[in-house]
Design brief:
Chain A: Keywords: Membrane, Transmembrane, Transmembrane helix. Chain A: The chain crosses the membrane at residues 51-72, 93-118, 130-152, 159-180, 200-218, 230-251. The complex is a heterodimer of chains A (440) and B (255). Chain A has 440 residues and is mainly α. Chain A has helices spanning 12-29, 40-46, 51-70, 87-119, 127-151, 156-169, 197-222, 233-247, 285-299, 338-353, 356-362, 372-377, 381-399, 417-426, 428-433, and strands at 193-195, 257-259, 265-270, 273-278, 308-311, 327-330. In chain A, 47% of the residues are buried. In chain B, α8 (217-226) crosses α9 (239-250). Classes of the chains: A mainly alpha (440), B alpha/beta (255).
Chain lengths: 440, 255
């Protein structure tokens, strides 16, 4: 029980939002509980992802409600003539609200963190995403509190809830231009990546500035008998700085993550092919080898451009097309659906062995394959490579006993398996250069 | 606990709300009387450290309210019940006063015992656990008083405390203020002559921002009698009120 001198509004205005935040955050992590193991990069990134969608508006609205109820200028418990007016009140009330809501956010994330401690294979928590996530909740609380102080009524709370949700959507509605300032991001550092310190630092600095500015302005307003007043030079300066920081990244395309320089890896060589995965994906190595083997069987040999198969987390995350020569990149996702995972891996290995990454680099305008019928009828080198990838993945699909999907595509259907292999052996250079001009 | 105003002037832009006011008062109930717009609330905002005088000096128990150190020291000694104040209706009576105790400088450990004492002093102990929304108008007024008394201030400033109360509630509040004045310096601002006449040992009258009168209650009564109209047949109100109206008119200010 909190002493009334610390919090006179009773427990409900604190407990109700706190429990809601914890439950909302926990429910947003539930899907990850079905994964066979956790990955620290993903768990850390989760701190600034979906869970904030509810936590940010809820904490802001709850803080606005409390400020609206407690800090009206005519409240007998909040007179400007009192010994403690202004900052002591803001520090006490905002400290409690921010502490409780940030704590409830951390509590909602706690089970996932524990699960990650128990099941992750490598690495540790990413301090920057975790800090940014927690700071986002505190910042939202400070903004909501400031709004409640200025509005002097709890009726501002629903408005803050709606505005909070809209602010969260801002980044998604603007192709990521706001990712340097909005709390929720989906493209932070994944496995094999590190946070881009300048952009993440900017985010942290922006949130700290918002928190500081709103807390200071709330403190000043609380020390006056009138809440609204022409801003002082220092307040005006803070507002200008905030606006500048808000607008500065809009013309840029800020990247939150960059490739790690030496990501830890686990490798194994099977049938002349070297397979490597990021240590965080270590349990996927066997599945990767098992999935890739039928693709190589279909190819009939190990071509020079396919001597290694690497987890894309070792190649700078999603930058699979910029891999070094001789390495086939595959994106590994931790998932429970083994069939889907095998099929996806086979398609990616087939894509690599067919030389499609070279085609994507040479013909960027054709990096997305067209309709299947168009591909099969085209004489463009990129389309012939795509047809080859269908053939390889289709054969592997059959070998693995998977339900036919890609094998239903009539790729190279006029040629026998042996004729395709012979054609492959004689066209390896053209495949690596994306210069195929004929079919088997 | 003397309060001393020395040639105090206060201006809002071009408008001068208080002109050269000098007045000293001490322990007991002191009345500040004046029609609406006379400058009473402005004077109280200066005394309660919310505003600073444009000219002149205010000393509260020797603390100069023109300095931040003096204002801080004075705030420890001050209890203030504004004319219009609000209460969070979902808060409990005792919690409201306890929180007011913290706002007024008490430590967390002191707040609850002090709140209970303050509630007892205004006869609200039995409502301590009640939500504020369940209190009557008079009880709310007493709750405001308890919130101003919780840190045991030596100077208590009340702005129109009896407005909106029924005659019974007004009577009880007057009795309470009388008791409080035995230990403290109480400044009671009112436009109601009856409150001032019955409670106050000294009286000051503000009119159009100027101090028109400052003296003892008997002297004030004398002034009123001197200003009493000869014919009262057509006038409304008590003889006192009619005399006060005449006094105010003689000072050149109509209410």
């Amino acid at each position: 029980m909190i002493r009334p001198s610390r919090w006179p509004l009773g427990s409900l205005p604190l407990l109700l939002p706190a429990i809601s935040i914890t439950l909302a955050v926990f429910s947003q992590t539930l899907e990850m509980f079905s994964w066979p193991y956790q990955v620290w990069a993903r768990t850390s990134q989760q701190f600034v992802s979906e869970p904030l969608i509810f936590a940010v508006p809820l904490s802001a609205a709850a803080a606005a409600y409390a400020a609206g109820r407690l800090t009206g200028p005519d409240r007998i418990t909040n007179l400007a003539s009192s010994l403690r007016s202004g900052s002591p009140i803001a520090i006490r009330q905002l400290g409690l609200l921010g502490g409780v809501f940030t704590g409830s956010y951390a509590l909602g994330m706690f089970p996932l963190v524990v699960l990650t401690i128990l099941t992750a294979h490598a690495g540790g928590p990413g301090p920057l995403p975790v800090l940014t996530g927690l700071l986002s909740v505190f910042t939202a609380t400070a903004v909501g509190y400031f709004a409640g102080v200025l509005a002097t009524t709890a009726w501002v709370s629903p408005l803050i809830l709606v505005l909070g949700f809209l602010a969260i959507q801002l980044n998604m509605a603007s192709s990521g231009n706001f990712r340097a300032i909005v709390p929720v991001t989906y493209d932070g550092a994944g496995v094999g990546q590190t946070p881009n310190l300048s952009v993440v630092g900017y985010r942290v600095a922006f949130m700290l500035l918002v928190t500081t500015a709103t807390s200071l302005m709330a403190s000043r307003a609380l020390a006056r008998s009138r809440r609204w007043k022409i801003p002082s030079w220092s307040t005006g300066g803070m507002i200008v700085l905030l606006l500048a920081m808000l607008l500065a990244p809009l013309g840029t395309d800020p990247r939150l993550a960059e490739a790690a320089s030496e990501p830890p890896r686990t490798c194994r060589t099977e049938a002349g092919v070297r397979f490597c995965v990021h240590q965080a994906h270590q349990p996927e190595l066997d599945e990767l080898i098992a999935a890739a083997e039928p693709v190589y069987q279909a190819y009939g040999s190990v071509p020079t451009h396919g001597e290694q198969v690497w987890d894309s987390a070792l190649l700078g995350g999603s930058q699979a097309d910029s891999r070094p020569d001789g390495i086939v990149g595959v994106g590994i996702r931790v998932r429970t659906d083994m069939t889907g995972s095998t099929r996806t891996l086979q398609r990616q290995v087939g894509y690599g062995l067919a030389g499609s990454p070279a085609c994507a680099a040479r013909f960027p305008e054709r990096s997305q394959p067209g309709m299947v019928r168009t591909v099969l009828e085209s004489r463009h080198p990129a389309d012939i490579a795509t047809e080859l990838s269908y053939w390889l993945a289709g054969r592997a699909e059959r070998t693995s006993g998977l339900r036919p999907r890609i094998s239903d595509i009539p790729a190279f259907d006029t040629a026998s398996k042996q004729e395709v292999r012979t054609w492959l052996a004689t066209h390896e250079r053209r495949i690596t250069e994306c210069a195929l001009d004929s079919r088997p | 606990m003397d309060v001393e105003l020395d040639r105090v002037t206060f201006r809002y832009g071009r408008h001068t709300a208080l002109h050269d006011v000098s007045w000293t008062f001490g322990k007991g109930v002191n009345g500040l009387l004046g029609p609406n717009g006379a400058g009473k609330t402005t004077l109280l905002s200066l005394l309660t450290t919310v505003s600073l005088p444009s000219e002149g000096r205010i000393l509260l128990s020797g603390n100069d309210l023109g300095t931040s150190q003096g204002r801080r020291a004075a705030r420890k000694l001050l209890g203030y019940v504004p004319q219009r104040f609000s209460l969070a209706s979902e808060m409990r009576t005792r919690d409201t006063v306890a929180y007011a105790g913290w706002i007024n400088g008490l430590s967390d450990a002191e707040c609850l015992p002090a709140a209970e004492r303050a509630l007892e002093s205004v006869s609200l102990s039995e409502y301590a656990r009640l939500r504020v929304r369940k209190l009557s108008g008079g009880q709310r007024q007493r709750l405001g008083l308890a919130a101003a008394l919780v840190h045991d201030p030596s100077v208590l400033v009340l702005d129109e405390p009896t407005v909106g109360l029924d005659p019974g509630q007004r009577l009880r509040l007057r009795e309470l203020l009388g008791e409080l004045g035995e230990q403290r310096t109480v400044l009671l601002s009112s436009h109601l002559l009856e409150d001032i006449a019955q409670l106050c040992g000294t009286v000051a009258v503000l009119a159009a921002g100027r101090l028109a009168f400052a003296g003892g209650n008997e002297e004030f009564h004398g002034l009123l009698e001197a200003n009493a109209p000869e014919s009262t047949s057509s006038a409304l109100g008590s003889p006192f009120e009619r005399a006060y109206d005449t006094l105010v008119n003689s000072l050149g200010v109509a209410e």
